[in-house]
Prior knowledge:
By secondary structure, the chain is mainly alpha-helical.
Amino acid sequence: MPTLKLQYLEFWDTLSPMTPVESLVHMAAILYTGAASSTINISQATTLNKLYDEIISVIDISTYFIRDSQTAILMLQGYLIFSTFKASQLAPFSAYGFLPQAIRFGQSLRLHTDSHTGGSIEIEVRRRLWWHLMFLDVESTIATGLPGIIHTDGYTTQLPSILYDTSISNPHQSEGNSNFDPIMIAMQGQWQWTYRMQTWFEKTPDQEVVHNFTGLIEDLLILIPKTDPDTEWPRTYLKLQTDRAYCMLGLRFWQLDQFKGTSCNSEVVW
């Protein structure tokens, strides 16, 4: 959130005829998803949806030539914010139609290779973008039954940090539980789930591997205070990762050879 607020303020402070069109894509996507999630901004959401469509059609991500990585990342952020939100409203095969193009775009930005150049926040943004692409790839694989696009040996990008953005950008600040961001801890659980599901697709895990994952989620839960009402949803979201992992295992078991030729083989486990 601190990064998002900073980008929002900088956008309006520097808005001019020279503002990069990629920034408009980014901001339109943010404002659209906010308005569309509200019960009182439906008309604004419709207007912003049309604005986003007009801008993205002019840029055309499929033929976009990357001249500046920073502005290109802004466009990819906007594209993913908008498309991920839309995906929740569509059937699986149409919901993830944007993903192959987005993944290739991310690879062209070298998001799949871990970088230690640039500012600390810039590095974290790149890591978060790549792991969100991986999460979407796993989600689409589960939803459609099609093979994933990203392979387990196809990237070196490290997991993003669980610290507040302000703590990341200030290396002299003392580290402690107060520096942990509950939202980023919840996202860490999602990314850990993503990594496990990607590997479990290739090889069904044994009980010890599953136990290690559930223990990891429990360790992350310890980092989020129970007494703060604002942390209730991050804790709930973390706990859901364990349930989702077991649901995924159930789906894998139904797909094993021993079930072929039975009516169970064509059933979808939700």
